[in-house]
């Protein structure tokens, strides 16, 4: 149970000791959960009051259980937010800083190989006889690759402002 | 503070989900096979029943008791659905964030553990091929 709730209940019950309050609660044996509210209440209490009492207690305990989960799960939500942000930032680093330079380098090298092979043929030599060869279908297709453009919200707003400024 | 006011305050306080997450471990004499969450719920029922009983005892008559219970019921009825909805919304949000992080993490791992080494290996292969072609052209031109 949440400490703040336990302390409030103990204070409101006028019980200075945890053990005595638990004993008093356990002594009820959760009869409200098991018995008909009208019979669970002392016989002198009118049926309507007994039923209302049962409803209040059960709904309070349910609300208490919901709040307990909400408060405890708060840390889980915060951790999930952190994980999601971290995975986004890692992905951004890969897609913006690590992958593009390698793909552009591979693209340039592929173009250079083709140029050299053409030049080799032009000199009457067979490029396929020169080792190591490249098994092109097995390589990653990066010939049409272009560095991705990352546009921030601020950039988008600035572009819109400039567009309307140009229109006068 | 009157015992009746304590009940209403305690019920209204249940709406505050910003309280610290500190918990207390309560030891109750229950069978070892008892489900802890059920035991906690039963104990909570009994604790609120004690509080309600104390508040009812402070009332002058059944009419006052009924009025108090009706107010208490209205208060807790206003709190419970909001908590229930917030709980379900937060659970859904947490699940979505978990799923997004998991899928993106998988994509990042694929990129980091497969794509990058593969590109590096191909670049090495291309450089070796370029060196060989250049050497051949230089050798042919000599």
Mean pLDDT of chain B: 91
Radius of gyration of chain B: 34 Å
Distance between the amino and carboxyl termini of chain B? 106 Å
Q: Give the assembly state of these chains.
A: heterodimer
| Anisotropy-based shape of chain B | rod-shaped
Q: Could you please describe the fold and organization of this structure?
A:
The complex is a heterodimer of chains A (168) and B (142). With 168 residues, chain A is mostly helical. Chain A is 71% helix and 0% strand. Chain A is elongated. Chain B is 80% helix and 0% strand. Chain B is built from three helices and no strands. In chain B, helix 1 packs antiparallel against helix 2 and helix 1 runs parallel beside helix 3. The longest helix of chain B has 80 residues. Chain B is rod-shaped and about 115 Å long. At the A-B interface, helix 1, helix 2 and helix 5 of A face helix 1, helix 2 and helix 3 of B.
Structure, briefly:
The complex is a heterodimer of chains A (168) and B (142). Chain A is mainly alpha-helical and 168 residues long. Helix content of chain A is 71%, strand content 0%.
Q: SSE layout and pairings?
A:
The complex is a heterodimer of chains A (168) and B (142).
Chain A: H1 3-13, H2 18-27, H3 31-34, H4 37-40, H5 47-122, H6 153-167
Chain B: H1 3-13, H2 36-57, H3 62-141
Helix pairs in contact in B: 1-2, 1-3
Key descriptive features of the protein:
heterodimer, A: 168 residues, mainly alpha, 6 helices, 71% helix, 0% strand, B: 142 residues, 3 helices, 80% helix
């Amino acid at each position: 149970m949440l400490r703040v709730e336990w302390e409030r209940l103990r204070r409101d019950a006028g019980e200075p000791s945890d053990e005595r309050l638990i004993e008093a609660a356990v002594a009820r044996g959760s009869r409200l959960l098991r018995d008909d509210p009208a019979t669970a209440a002392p016989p002198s209490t009118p049926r309507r009051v007994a039923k209302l009492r049962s409803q209040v207690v059960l709904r309070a305990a349910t609300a208490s259980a919901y709040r307990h989960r909400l408060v405890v799960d708060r840390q889980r939500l915060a951790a999930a937010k952190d994980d999601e942000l971290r995975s986004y930032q890692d992905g951004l680093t890969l897609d913006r800083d690590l992958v593009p330079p390698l793909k552009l380098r591979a693209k340039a090298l592929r173009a250079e190989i083709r140029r050299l092979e053409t030049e080799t043929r032009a000199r009457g030599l067979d490029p396929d006889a020169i080792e190591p060869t490249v098994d092109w279908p097995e390589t990653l297709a990066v010939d049409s690759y272009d560095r991705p453009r990352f546009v921030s919200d601020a950039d988008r707003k600035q572009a819109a402002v400039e567009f309307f400024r140009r229109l006068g | 503070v009157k015992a009746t006011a304590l009940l209403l305050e305690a019920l209204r306080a249940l709406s505050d989900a910003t309280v610290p997450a500190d918990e207390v471990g309560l030891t109750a004499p229950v069978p070892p096979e008892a489900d802890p969450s059920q035991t906690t719920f039963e104990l909570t029922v009994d604790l609120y029943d004690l509080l309600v009983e104390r508040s009812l005892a402070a009332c002058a008559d059944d009419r006052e008791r009924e009025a108090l219970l009706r107010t208490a019921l209205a208060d807790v009825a206003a709190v419970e659905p909001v908590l229930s909805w917030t709980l379900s919304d937060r659970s859904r949000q947490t699940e979505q964030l978990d799923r997004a992080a998991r899928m993106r993490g998988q994509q990042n791992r694929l990129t980091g553990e497969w794509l990058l080494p593969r590109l590096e290996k191909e670049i090495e292969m291309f450089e070796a091929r370029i060196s060989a072609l250049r050497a051949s052209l230089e050798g042919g031109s000599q």
